[in-house]
Amino acid sequence: MAMEAYDWFIASGMINSKNIINDGLNIHVKPCKSGDIQGWTYNQGVILSGLAELTWSTGDPKYNNLANTLATASMAHYANNSQMILHEPCEPDCSTDLSQFKGIYGRNIQFLVNRANVLPANLKTQFVTFLQNNANEIWAKDKGVDNQLGLVWSGPPSVATVETQSSALDAIVGAACVS
Questions:
Q1: Model confidence over 14-47: pLDDT tens digits?
Q2: DSSP 28-74
Q3: Beta strands in the chain (DSSP E)
Q4: Disulfide check for 74: which of 25, 34, 44, 159 has CB 3.0–4.6 Å away?
Q5: From CA 135, how far away is CA 168, in angstroms rounded?
């Protein structure tokens, strides 16, 4: 079943030419194809742990190699600043759902670091540094009243919600798990 899902996903065209996963499919064409809708950080993150598990269960490194490619491309796309701090395209005005997405991404980067059978040392260092930089930035620049954590991790502190708090804590816990 997992292999069929992988084959379908690869054939769907959801991975664009920049190795960014688009958000959604056009169901009005047969077979359905990528809708070329802007992706979000969670689109990039959720696939990483699945690919790491496929390599772990099959012994085939191609899945981890794809995860490494997607993770590297998505970091460059969504954390395109000197300190590699993650941002959603909707910041600073994201909906409640979108406010959770960065944490999902961070959690899956952490899983990739800890589970991947095929992770070159330079990529492991890059991914660990990414997680640590984001956690440090959150704690230094995104803490509001009573240490509540907002949406924009690079600050300034903003209104915290259940979603932003959970997302930021996912990043902090992810950094702790690889440190």
A1: 898 899 998 877 777 776 666 666 789 999 999 9
A2: TSSS-EE--PPP-HHHHHHHHHHHHHHHHHH--THHHHHHHHHHHHH
A3: 25-26, 33-34
A4: 44
A5: 8
Buried residues in 28-60 as b, exposed as e (16+ CB within 10 A):
eeeeeebbeeebbbbbbbebbbbbbbbbeeeee
Whole-angstrom distance, CA of residue 72 vs CA of residue 172: 20
- The amino acid sitting at 20 is I
The encoded tokens of residue 52 equal 């790491």
d(CA 140, CA 156): 10
- What is the mean pLDDT of the segment spanning 138-157? 94
Tokens of residue 30, six digits = 């047969």
**pTM attached to this predicted model:** 0.92
What does the CA dihedral 70, 111, 179, 87 come to, rounded to 10 degrees? 50
Amino acid present at 93: D
DSSP SS3 for 34: strand
Tokens linked to 160: 């915290």
